[in-house]
């Protein structure tokens, strides 16, 4: 059925377009239901593919086009005069519901949607004004909402008349560039709730194709106008486009749609229109909807690596790939792409090592296939950094960790613990590489100058190794860090090119140093005389090893006073200094270290927020979700010991729950796919109940003796998870 609950389906529109060469036919008696002529879709010729270089187009649309386009506009044809108001329309609907006579409403709908001109006549706020700016679409959004909200509760002949009118508008023969009235009509038609019904998909597809094929300048207008749509309506349009793509990929009733070979342009058209809404969403701060609302989880079930390889081979050419539009790919799907890409790189590097060994007539051994890191717990940081520095050529091999003097074999568990302990020590304030900001609960790079930044490079490589080996880390960097890490996402060939430099704002500073950011915000809003009251210049001061040093934010900054006129420039330069320039060498080393391991075109698919999730996982523990997905070996989920276990765990504090997760899996972070991705298993341990629980972190497995009561289980479990560092027995 339709949104809002229309009770019966229309006759199928899957055989769209009465005849391509036929001129628009008259509606005839507007008071009677229109009859739709439906030919065989197989006679309709295939349409050419649309241009797919949406990422380049979007970049040009948003960054290079001026606020007001200077190109001459095509003349707008004069519009019919329509005087019906929102209240008039709503009164007509109420009268029709009461009397059962829908003639007036039928006439309104059939007239309004008969052509693009009529749509503008009805919904344009002022038909005498051109509304040729990106700032105001001129659309009466309240009237559009009222008309669409009522539409699905009208009789079927009324709804059919709307669809027939849309067909007439789409069949119009276009000559020359589109007018702003045409763009307004497209913007209004996209919001039609009838397009949630699969029986209208052929009409919807042709609407999307026409919008996708518009010029770059026209897309620029649609992007800016779309950001003014209400959140509710915006979300509905996005959901409708995602549903259209999903059902074209996996139709519930394949016979409803034309053969895929006849409509290969459907999905590219819909995806490109979705890209316009994604661009509109990114222009607003905060965005209209979350970036995750653009994810299409249906794509998790297609051959993602084929999509990825097509994109690598053909780039942004006319060959369509969802990787050209990464906003539509979920973080779970992107993780799969990155994992498989990493695995292929690991296999390739290992194979090359084997070939090199054989070509030199040397005996190969298994250790050459791995990045073997051997460390002492008592010298964890120095040993680890030495190992990574010596084995830089092996960083893209599978990681294998050995703690000297311990019996543990690394099937994944030792690697997890190595990362956890190493990160904990490196980020300790005494180590001096990173500064912890208590107000924001995050770390930031120390701006202290030093002779050698190689340790920052090795920390970057460590974070890259975690992503490369699918390990989540307990790192508390602000979102700005990941934005810098993708600036640019591919390491430039020219080593003189600046890296790790991105546009930063006061909002970025708020996430690291909220108190300082608040002070700068107060400066911007100060109503008095800034120069006389603050007596500041374009110069900042920093303490380094007990010595106060000054830095000019611009040439001769110490001689330039901060005034009411230039305070915005001062704040921007100050933020840029703190987040970019003062830590450039530290972050550049960190950037090169990360990309020395994670260099991959797959990084082009990621948003900064998604990199953070891949590195850190989710800090939010949902033990109920873990309970639902847990597997059992030797136990049933109804056994008393298992019931005791979950009663105890669900009653734990967050700190104890994290300790349990760390004890059983080697990490207290939740992976991208949620608790279900842990593949957590509880096995029955046939040992005395005097023994503590045992964990196999390589397999996320907890071995639990059959404790007799809840009190005993809780006591033994807390002792076990609170003393869970090290492998083997002493």
Automatic annotation (TrEMBL):
Residues 391-730 form the HECT domain. The active site is at residue 698. It is an enzyme of class 2 (transferase). It comes from the Eukaryota. Its EC number is 2.3.2.26. One of its GO terms (biological process) is protein polyubiquitination. InterPro entries: E3A/B/C-like, HECT_dom, Hect_E3_ubiquitin_ligase. Keywords: Ligase, Phosphoprotein, Transferase, Ubl conjugation pathway. PANTHER family: HECT-TYPE E3 UBIQUITIN TRANSFERASE (PTHR45700:SF9), UBIQUITIN-PROTEIN LIGASE E3C (PTHR45700). E3 ubiquitin-protein ligase which accepts ubiquitin from an E2 ubiquitin-conjugating enzyme in the form of a thioester and then directly transfers the ubiquitin to targeted substrates. This is Probable E3 ubiquitin-protein ligase HECTD2. The lineage of its organism: Eukaryota, Metazoa, Chordata, Craniata, Vertebrata.
């Amino acid at each position: 059925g339709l949104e809002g609950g229309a009770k019966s389906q229309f006759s199928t529109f899957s055989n769209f377009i009465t005849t391509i060469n036929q001129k628009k036919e008259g509606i005839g008696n507007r008071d009677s239901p229109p009859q739709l002529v439906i030919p065989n879709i197989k006679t309709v010729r295939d349409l050419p593919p649309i241009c797919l270089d949406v990422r380049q187009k979007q970049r040009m649309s948003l960054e290079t086009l001026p606020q007001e386009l200077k190109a001459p506009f095509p003349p707008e044809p004069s519009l019919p005069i329509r005087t019906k108001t929102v209240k008039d329309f709503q009164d007509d609907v109420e009268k029709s519901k009461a009397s059962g006579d829908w003639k007036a409403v039928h006439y309104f709908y059939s007239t309004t949607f008969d052509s693009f001109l009529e749509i503008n006549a009805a919904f344009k706020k002022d038909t005498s004004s051109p509304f040729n700016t990106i700032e105001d679409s001129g659309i009466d959004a309240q009237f559009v909402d009222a008309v669409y909200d009522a539409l699905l509760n009208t009789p079927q002949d009324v709804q059919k008349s709307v669809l027939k009118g849309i067909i007439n508008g789409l069949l119009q023969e276009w000559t020359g560039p589109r007018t702003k009235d045409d763009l307004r009509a497209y913007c209004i038609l996209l919001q039609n709730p009838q397009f949630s019904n699969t029986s209208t998909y052929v009409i919807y597809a042709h609407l999307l194709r026409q919008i996708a094929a518009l010029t770059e300048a026209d897309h620029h207008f649609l992007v800016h106008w779309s950001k003014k749509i209400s959140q509710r309506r915006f979300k509905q349009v996005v959901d409708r486009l995602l549903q259209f793509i999903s059902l074209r990929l996996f139709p519930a009733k394949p016979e409803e749609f034309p053969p895929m070979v006849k409509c290969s342009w459907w999905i590219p058209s819909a995806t490109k229109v979705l890209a316009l809404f994604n661009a509109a969403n990114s222009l607003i701060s905060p965005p209209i909807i979350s970036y995750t609302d653009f994810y299409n989880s249906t794509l998790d079930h297609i051959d993602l690596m084929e999509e990825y390889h097509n994109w690598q081979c053909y780039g942004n050419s006319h060959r369509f790939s969802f990787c050209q539009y990464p906003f539509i790919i979920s973080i779970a799907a992107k993780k799969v792409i990155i994992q498989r890409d990493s695995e292929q790189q690991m296999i390739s590097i290992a194979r090359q090592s084997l070939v090199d060994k054989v070509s030199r007539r040397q005996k190969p051994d298994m250790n050459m296939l791995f990045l073997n890191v051997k460390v002492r717990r008592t010298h964890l940081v120095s040993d680890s950094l030495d190992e990574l520095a010596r084995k830089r050529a092996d960083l893209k091999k599978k990681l294998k960790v050995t703690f000297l003097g311990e019996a543990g074999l690394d099937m994944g568990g030792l690697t997890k613990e190595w990362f956890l302990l190493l990160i904990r020590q490196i980020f300790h304030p005494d180590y001096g590489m990173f500064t912890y900001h208590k107000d924001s609960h995050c770390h930031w790079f120390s701006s202290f100058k030093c002779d050698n930044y190689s340790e920052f490079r090795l920390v970057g490589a460590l974070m890259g190794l975690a992503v490369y080996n699918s390990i989540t880390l307990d790192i508390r960097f602000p979102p700005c860090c990941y934005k810098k890490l993708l600036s640019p996402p591919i390491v430039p060939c020219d080593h003189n090119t600046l890296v790790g430099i991105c546009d930063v704002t006061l909002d970025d500073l708020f996430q690291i140093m909220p108190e300082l950011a608040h002070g700068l915000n107060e400066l911007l809003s100060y109503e008095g005389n800034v120069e006389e009251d603050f007596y500041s210049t374009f110069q900042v001061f920093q303490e380094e090893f007990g010595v106060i040093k000054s830095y000019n934010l611009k040439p001769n900054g110490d001689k330039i006073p901060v005034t009411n006129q230039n305070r915005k420039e001062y704040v921007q330069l100050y933020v840029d200094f703190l987040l970019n320039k003062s830590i450039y060498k530290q972050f550049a080393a960190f950037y090169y270290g990360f990309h020395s391991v994670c260099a991959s075109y797959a990084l082009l698919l990621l948003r900064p927020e998604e990199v953070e999730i891949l590195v850190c996982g989710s800090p939010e523990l949902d033990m109920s979700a873990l309970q639902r997905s847990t597997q059992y070996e030797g136990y049933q989920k109804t056994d008393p010991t298992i019931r005791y276990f979950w009663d105890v765990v669900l009653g734990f504090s967050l700190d104890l729950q994290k300790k349990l997760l760390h004890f059983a899996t080697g990490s207290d972070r939740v992976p991208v796919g949620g608790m279900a991705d842990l593949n957590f298993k509880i096995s029955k341990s046939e040992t005395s109940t005097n023994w503590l629980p045992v964990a196999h972190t390589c397999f996320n497995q907890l071995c639990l003796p059959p404790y007799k009561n809840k009190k005993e289980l809780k006591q033994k479990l807390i002792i076990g998870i609170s003393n869970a560092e090290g492998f083997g027995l002493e």
